[in-house]
Known about the structure:
Helices cover about 55% and strands about 10% of the residues. By secondary structure, it is of the alpha/beta class. A 6-stranded parallel beta sheet has the order 1-8-5-4-2-3. Helix 7 runs parallel beside helix 14 and helix 13 crosses helix 14. The longest helix is centred in the last third of the chain and has 25 residues, at about 355-375. The two termini are about 40 Å apart. Bound molecules: zinc ion (ZN). Zinc ion binds near residues 136 and 285.
Amino acid sequence: MNDDLIARGVAAASDTSVVQVGRGVVADTGTILRDSLFADGRDALVVADDRTWQAAGRAVQESLRAAGIRVHDPLVFPGHPVLYAALETCDVVQARLAETGALGVAVGSGTINDLVKLASGRLEQPYAVVGTAASMDGYSGFGAPMSSQGVKVTMPCPAPAVVIIDLDVTAAAPPSMVASGYGDLSAKIPAGADWILSDTIGLDPIDPLAWQLVQSGVSEALSRPEALAAGDPDAYAGLVSGLVLSGLAMQVYRGTRPASGAEHYFSHLWELDHLGADWDPPLSHGHKVAIGTLAMSAFYERFLARDLAALDIEAAVSHWASWDVVEADIRSRFTGALADHAVGETAVKYVDPAGLRARLTRFVDAWGELRPRLEAQLVPARTLQTMLRSAGAPATPEEIGLSAEDVRTTFPRAMYYRSRYTVLDLAREAGWFDDLVAEVFAPGGLWT
Ligand SMILES: [Zn+2]
């Protein structure tokens, strides 16, 4: 089923034309790329780090050569300390690609892929990635998160033309990497619920193909956490496909909505605080996302414990905070440029009292149909916590260096951080936000 879905995703994707996932496919890299990326006879430059060179890079280089592709000396970065996706490093990759005239073949996971993706995008040339770990859903996505002088920005650039992932290689990667990919994929559960809510009020209409790509394989992909943690290559098929499909869904939708909701904003905000950046290895994207996902799953549980159909809309409208009050609250929770950013983002989704009345009326009217959809989409927070733990992913704030209180104070920040509409906004509009956050952290809660 996944192969068929991947084929449909590739057919609709803007940038990616070949996806090959399977056991032992690294050995076929040369023939796959000779008939696709290098069909015009261009040279190849393999980009890796010491670890990924050992894991797959050398085999890729040999496979390319055996297939008759002219390969340059590989660009291999040190494996330790862990390589950062920094613009200065991207410049190095870009310069080597430009001076050789070669097309890039990234062999690695998040960072190596992002570096070659951005360097190739700047040179307006396609590239291929051979993924070495099931660590995140960015292999098949566009855009590259980069740090530049301490600030993290996502640079626009196309997704890879060719994605090759060998399940034997991913199964042999460090266990924390699969735990990260597992966390990133678990995010699609609350993210899907947020998308349903946004679609209901016409903000981000659900695209049926993008939805199917990202959501249909999630439960299967998350169903064998112990086997993943144990390094069983066959268990990786579902997870790797799920991560690749998530990236394809973003290409089809031309946006990140299919793959992320409020749970990702927790992760982004912690990343801006450099949480775990000095750990060895640095705290991964998926590990932060896992805690954001649990926070949002617990919030959704408290939300669904109430009956939105019985909401007193006029009372909610009469208590609706004016924009000045909202802006003051945002500025009390953020500093500097981030405060201006959050004000701008929140203004996009802020409505006046008449707009609020219309929005809440829409939700109340739709609630009979919406509620079962949300319940079918979500997984109880404690169930998800057990699954994450089995996969080796963090299941408590302390495991990523935070306290429950840190997560609690991130809730309003996550609401204000982006213009994307989520259940946090609906809760605020209904007048429930503070109470629901308090309930998540009340005695007997997930982390208390
Ligand atoms: Zn993610």
